[in-house]
Protein backbone atom coordinates (compact mmCIF):
# COMPACT_ATOMS: atom_id res chain seq x y z
CA UNK A 1 0.00 0.00 0.00
CA UNK A 2 2.94 2.31 0.39
CA UNK A 3 3.07 2.34 -3.41
CA UNK A 4 5.76 1.70 -5.99
CA UNK A 5 7.37 -1.67 -5.97
CA UNK A 6 7.80 -1.79 -2.23
CA UNK A 7 6.73 -4.64 -0.06
CA UNK A 8 6.72 -4.38 3.68
CA UNK A 9 6.75 -7.33 5.96
CA UNK A 10 5.22 -6.94 9.36
CA UNK A 11 5.97 -9.82 11.62
CA UNK A 12 5.52 -10.78 15.23
CA UNK A 13 9.03 -9.81 16.12
CA UNK A 14 8.49 -6.28 14.82
CA UNK A 15 5.24 -5.95 16.74
CA UNK A 16 7.06 -6.74 19.95
CA UNK A 17 9.77 -4.28 19.17
CA UNK A 18 7.25 -1.52 18.41
CA UNK A 19 5.66 -2.15 21.80
CA UNK A 20 9.06 -2.14 23.42
CA UNK A 21 9.83 1.11 21.72
CA UNK A 22 6.64 2.75 22.96
CA UNK A 23 7.38 1.55 26.49
CA UNK A 24 10.96 2.78 26.15
CA UNK A 25 9.72 6.16 24.98
CA UNK A 26 7.52 6.58 28.05
CA UNK A 27 10.33 5.53 30.39
CA UNK A 28 12.73 7.91 28.72
CA UNK A 29 10.32 10.84 29.01
CA UNK A 30 9.98 10.12 32.73
CA UNK A 31 13.72 9.67 33.16
CA UNK A 32 14.47 13.03 31.53
CA UNK A 33 11.93 14.73 33.78
CA UNK A 34 13.44 13.18 36.92
CA UNK A 35 16.77 13.56 38.63
CA UNK A 36 18.89 12.75 35.58
CA UNK A 37 21.95 11.69 37.51
CA UNK A 38 19.81 9.00 39.15
CA UNK A 39 17.61 8.03 36.24
CA UNK A 40 20.15 8.35 33.42
CA UNK A 41 23.52 7.27 34.79
CA UNK A 42 26.48 7.70 32.48
CA UNK A 43 28.89 4.78 32.71
CA UNK A 44 32.48 4.60 31.52
CA UNK A 45 34.44 1.93 29.71
CA UNK A 46 38.24 2.02 29.76
CA UNK A 47 40.27 2.65 26.61
CA UNK A 48 43.75 1.25 27.12
CA UNK A 49 47.21 1.24 25.62
CA UNK A 50 47.64 -2.00 23.64
CA UNK A 51 51.16 -2.63 24.85
CA UNK A 52 50.46 -2.70 28.59
CA UNK A 53 46.74 -2.29 29.25
CA UNK A 54 47.24 1.12 30.90
CA UNK A 55 44.03 3.17 30.95
CA UNK A 56 44.39 6.29 28.80
CA UNK A 57 40.77 7.25 28.27
CA UNK A 58 37.16 6.24 28.55
CA UNK A 59 34.02 6.05 26.45
CA UNK A 60 30.91 7.49 28.10
CA UNK A 61 27.95 5.15 27.65
CA UNK A 62 24.43 6.06 28.73
CA UNK A 63 22.19 3.80 30.81
CA UNK A 64 18.67 4.15 32.14
CA UNK A 65 17.69 3.18 35.66
CA UNK A 66 14.11 1.93 35.88
CA UNK A 67 11.88 2.52 38.90
CA UNK A 68 12.69 -0.97 40.21
CA UNK A 69 16.40 -0.15 40.11
CA UNK A 70 17.20 -2.31 37.08
CA UNK A 71 19.57 -0.96 34.44
CA UNK A 72 18.42 -0.64 30.83
CA UNK A 73 20.97 -0.53 28.00
CA UNK A 74 21.02 2.20 25.32
CA UNK A 75 19.94 -0.08 22.47
CA UNK A 76 16.51 -0.21 24.17
CA UNK A 77 15.96 3.55 24.15
CA UNK A 78 18.41 5.40 21.86
CA UNK A 79 16.34 4.69 18.70
CA UNK A 80 13.21 6.11 20.36
CA UNK A 81 15.25 9.03 21.67
CA UNK A 82 16.40 9.83 18.14
CA UNK A 83 12.93 9.54 16.64
CA UNK A 84 11.28 11.76 19.21
CA UNK A 85 14.08 14.30 19.50
CA UNK A 86 14.61 13.41 23.16
CA UNK A 87 18.17 12.58 22.12
CA UNK A 88 18.89 16.32 22.29
CA UNK A 89 18.39 16.79 26.07
CA UNK A 90 19.75 13.28 26.61
CA UNK A 91 22.90 14.05 24.66
CA UNK A 92 23.36 17.31 26.54
CA UNK A 93 23.14 15.39 29.82
CA UNK A 94 25.79 12.91 28.64
CA UNK A 95 28.14 15.73 27.60
CA UNK A 96 27.71 17.49 30.94
CA UNK A 97 28.42 14.30 32.88
CA UNK A 98 31.39 13.37 30.68
CA UNK A 99 33.02 16.76 31.16
CA UNK A 100 32.36 16.70 34.89
CA UNK A 101 34.15 13.37 35.17
CA UNK A 102 36.95 14.48 32.89
CA UNK A 103 37.58 17.32 35.34
CA UNK A 104 37.51 14.84 38.23
CA UNK A 105 39.88 12.39 36.55
CA UNK A 106 42.00 14.97 34.72
CA UNK A 107 45.20 13.73 36.35
CA UNK A 108 44.35 10.07 35.80
CA UNK A 109 43.20 9.79 32.19
CA UNK A 110 43.85 11.61 28.94
CA UNK A 111 40.44 11.88 27.36
CA UNK A 112 36.76 10.99 27.32
CA UNK A 113 34.89 9.95 24.23
CA UNK A 114 31.18 10.75 23.85
CA UNK A 115 28.71 9.35 21.31
CA UNK A 116 26.86 11.98 19.32
CA UNK A 117 23.84 11.03 17.26
CA UNK A 118 23.19 12.56 13.82
CA UNK A 119 20.09 14.25 15.16
CA UNK A 120 22.17 16.02 17.81
CA UNK A 121 24.77 17.01 15.28
CA UNK A 122 22.10 18.49 13.02
CA UNK A 123 20.72 20.63 15.83
CA UNK A 124 21.73 24.30 15.27
CA UNK A 125 22.23 24.68 19.03
CA UNK A 126 24.74 21.86 19.27
CA UNK A 127 27.93 23.81 18.55
CA UNK A 128 26.99 26.73 20.86
CA UNK A 129 26.20 24.21 23.60
CA UNK A 130 29.55 22.55 23.13
CA UNK A 131 31.35 25.90 23.17
CA UNK A 132 29.52 26.89 26.40
CA UNK A 133 30.36 23.62 28.12
CA UNK A 134 34.02 23.93 27.17
CA UNK A 135 34.12 27.55 28.34
CA UNK A 136 32.61 26.46 31.67
CA UNK A 137 35.43 23.92 32.12
CA UNK A 138 38.57 25.94 31.35
CA UNK A 139 40.83 23.40 33.10
CA UNK A 140 40.08 20.94 30.30
CA UNK A 141 41.94 21.19 27.02
CA UNK A 142 39.17 20.67 24.37
CA UNK A 143 41.27 18.03 22.60
CA UNK A 144 40.63 15.81 25.62
CA UNK A 145 37.02 15.55 24.47
CA UNK A 146 36.36 13.21 21.54
CA UNK A 147 32.99 13.06 19.79
CA UNK A 148 32.13 9.70 18.22
CA UNK A 149 29.95 9.77 15.14
CA UNK A 150 28.71 6.89 13.00
CA UNK A 151 29.03 6.97 9.26
CA UNK A 152 25.93 4.89 8.49
CA UNK A 153 23.76 7.09 10.63
CA UNK A 154 24.92 10.17 8.77
CA UNK A 155 24.08 8.82 5.33
CA UNK A 156 21.17 10.63 3.81
CA UNK A 157 21.24 13.47 6.26
CA UNK A 158 20.69 16.77 4.50
CA UNK A 159 23.08 18.51 6.81
CA UNK A 160 26.47 19.51 5.52
CA UNK A 161 28.16 17.17 7.93
CA UNK A 162 31.64 18.09 6.89
CA UNK A 163 31.07 21.77 7.56
CA UNK A 164 29.55 21.07 10.97
CA UNK A 165 32.45 18.83 11.90
CA UNK A 166 34.97 21.45 10.80
CA UNK A 167 33.28 23.96 13.11
CA UNK A 168 33.45 21.48 15.98
CA UNK A 169 37.10 20.83 15.25
CA UNK A 170 37.81 24.54 15.27
CA UNK A 171 36.85 24.43 18.98
CA UNK A 172 39.72 21.98 19.43
CA UNK A 173 37.45 18.97 20.03
CA UNK A 174 38.48 15.74 18.30
CA UNK A 175 36.26 13.60 16.09
CA UNK A 176 36.16 9.80 15.97
CA UNK A 177 34.53 7.76 13.23
CA UNK A 178 32.63 5.11 15.22
CA UNK A 179 31.85 1.52 14.15
CA UNK A 180 34.27 1.87 11.26
CA UNK A 181 33.92 -0.93 8.75
CA UNK A 182 30.20 -1.52 9.21
CA UNK A 183 28.96 1.16 6.83
CA UNK A 184 28.42 1.10 3.12
CA UNK A 185 30.86 3.76 2.09
CA UNK A 186 33.61 3.67 4.65
CA UNK A 187 36.27 4.85 2.27
CA UNK A 188 34.17 7.77 1.08
CA UNK A 189 33.78 8.81 4.67
CA UNK A 190 37.46 8.49 5.36
CA UNK A 191 38.01 10.77 2.41
CA UNK A 192 35.40 13.35 3.34
CA UNK A 193 35.17 13.43 7.10
CA UNK A 194 37.89 15.28 8.98
CA UNK A 195 38.17 12.62 11.68
CA UNK A 196 41.11 12.29 14.06
CA UNK A 197 40.34 8.76 15.22
CA UNK A 198 38.82 5.64 13.68
CA UNK A 199 37.12 3.10 15.89
CA UNK A 200 37.38 -0.34 14.35
CA UNK A 201 34.10 -2.14 14.81
CA UNK A 202 33.89 -5.16 17.09
CA UNK A 203 32.54 -7.32 14.25
CA UNK A 204 35.92 -7.49 12.61
CA UNK A 205 38.05 -7.18 15.73
CA UNK A 206 36.73 -10.05 17.85
CA UNK A 207 38.56 -13.28 17.08
CA UNK A 208 40.98 -11.71 14.60
CA UNK A 209 43.96 -13.63 15.96
CA UNK A 210 42.45 -16.86 14.63
CA UNK A 211 41.03 -15.45 11.39
CA UNK A 212 43.51 -14.63 8.63
CA UNK A 213 40.99 -12.61 6.59
CA UNK A 214 39.99 -10.43 9.54
CA UNK A 215 43.60 -9.95 10.34
CA UNK A 216 44.42 -8.80 6.79
CA UNK A 217 41.53 -6.35 6.77
CA UNK A 218 42.54 -4.92 10.14
CA UNK A 219 46.13 -4.49 8.99
CA UNK A 220 45.07 -2.69 5.85
CA UNK A 221 42.69 -0.40 7.72
CA UNK A 222 45.37 0.40 10.29
CA UNK A 223 47.78 1.26 7.51
CA UNK A 224 45.16 3.48 5.89
CA UNK A 225 44.36 5.24 9.17
CA UNK A 226 48.02 5.83 9.83
CA UNK A 227 48.72 7.26 6.40
CA UNK A 228 45.78 9.63 6.86
CA UNK A 229 47.27 10.76 10.17
CA UNK A 230 44.48 9.24 12.23
CA UNK A 231 44.79 7.13 15.33
CA UNK A 232 42.89 3.87 15.68
CA UNK A 233 40.99 2.30 18.56
CA UNK A 234 39.93 -1.34 18.26
CA UNK A 235 36.61 -2.10 19.94
CA UNK A 236 35.32 -5.35 21.37
CA UNK A 237 38.65 -6.83 22.44
CA UNK A 238 37.72 -9.81 24.57
CA UNK A 239 40.73 -12.09 24.32
CA UNK A 240 44.36 -11.70 25.14
CA UNK A 241 45.35 -13.24 21.82
CA UNK A 242 43.49 -10.43 20.04
CA UNK A 243 45.21 -7.83 22.19
CA UNK A 244 48.59 -9.20 21.16
CA UNK A 245 47.62 -9.47 17.49
CA UNK A 246 46.33 -5.88 17.46
CA UNK A 247 49.42 -4.59 19.21
CA UNK A 248 51.63 -6.43 16.74
CA UNK A 249 49.60 -4.94 13.86
CA UNK A 250 50.31 -1.45 15.21
CA UNK A 251 46.96 -0.64 16.80
CA UNK A 252 47.88 1.44 19.83
CA UNK A 253 44.55 1.78 21.61
CA UNK A 254 42.08 -0.91 22.61
CA UNK A 255 38.67 -1.14 24.22
CA UNK A 256 36.76 -4.23 25.27
CA UNK A 257 35.59 -6.53 28.01
CA UNK A 258 39.14 -7.87 28.39
CA UNK A 259 40.07 -4.56 30.02
CA UNK A 260 36.72 -3.70 31.57
CA UNK A 261 33.03 -3.45 30.83
CA UNK A 262 31.25 -0.10 31.04
CA UNK A 263 31.00 0.72 34.77
CA UNK A 264 29.56 3.39 37.06
CA UNK A 265 31.82 6.42 37.60
CA UNK A 266 32.66 5.51 41.21
CA UNK A 267 33.97 2.15 40.07
CA UNK A 268 35.84 3.69 37.14
CA UNK A 269 37.44 6.22 39.49
CA UNK A 270 38.67 3.39 41.71
CA UNK A 271 40.01 1.54 38.68
CA UNK A 272 42.10 4.46 37.44
CA UNK A 273 43.36 5.15 40.97
CA UNK A 274 44.56 1.56 41.26
CA UNK A 275 46.04 1.54 37.78
CA UNK A 276 47.96 4.81 38.31
CA UNK A 277 49.37 3.52 41.62
CA UNK A 278 50.53 0.28 40.06
P1 LIG B 1 29.00 1.88 20.60
O1 LIG B 1 29.21 3.35 20.53
O2 LIG B 1 29.59 1.06 19.50
O3 LIG B 1 29.55 1.45 22.03
C1 LIG B 1 30.22 0.24 22.26
C2 LIG B 1 29.27 -0.82 22.73
O4 LIG B 1 29.95 -2.07 22.71
C3 LIG B 1 28.81 -0.61 24.19
O5 LIG B 1 27.49 -1.11 24.31
C4 LIG B 1 29.79 -1.51 24.94
O6 LIG B 1 29.30 -1.94 26.19
C5 LIG B 1 29.94 -2.66 23.98
N1 LIG B 1 31.22 -3.36 24.17
C6 LIG B 1 32.39 -2.82 24.54
N2 LIG B 1 33.35 -3.75 24.61
C7 LIG B 1 32.79 -4.92 24.27
C8 LIG B 1 33.28 -6.26 24.16
O7 LIG B 1 34.44 -6.57 24.41
N3 LIG B 1 32.38 -7.20 23.77
C9 LIG B 1 31.09 -6.92 23.51
N4 LIG B 1 30.28 -7.90 23.16
N5 LIG B 1 30.59 -5.65 23.59
C10 LIG B 1 31.42 -4.67 23.98
P2 LIG B 1 26.33 -0.27 24.99
O8 LIG B 1 26.86 0.49 26.17
O9 LIG B 1 25.19 -1.18 25.17
O10 LIG B 1 25.98 0.82 23.88
C11 LIG B 1 25.38 0.44 22.68
C12 LIG B 1 25.29 1.60 21.73
O11 LIG B 1 24.40 2.62 22.20
C13 LIG B 1 26.63 2.32 21.56
O12 LIG B 1 27.41 1.57 20.66
C14 LIG B 1 26.15 3.66 20.99
O13 LIG B 1 25.91 3.57 19.61
C15 LIG B 1 24.84 3.86 21.71
N6 LIG B 1 25.06 4.80 22.83
C16 LIG B 1 25.51 4.54 24.08
N7 LIG B 1 25.58 5.68 24.82
C17 LIG B 1 25.18 6.68 23.99
C18 LIG B 1 25.02 8.11 24.16
O14 LIG B 1 25.31 8.71 25.21
N8 LIG B 1 24.56 8.81 23.06
C19 LIG B 1 24.27 8.21 21.87
N9 LIG B 1 23.83 8.97 20.86
N10 LIG B 1 24.40 6.88 21.69
C20 LIG B 1 24.84 6.13 22.73
CA1 LIG C 1 30.86 4.65 20.37
CA1 LIG D 1 31.41 1.53 18.26
TrEMBL record:
Residues 21-276 form the EAL domain. This is Uncharacterized protein. It comes from Paractinoplanes durhamensis. The chain holds residues 464 to 741 of 744 of the full protein.
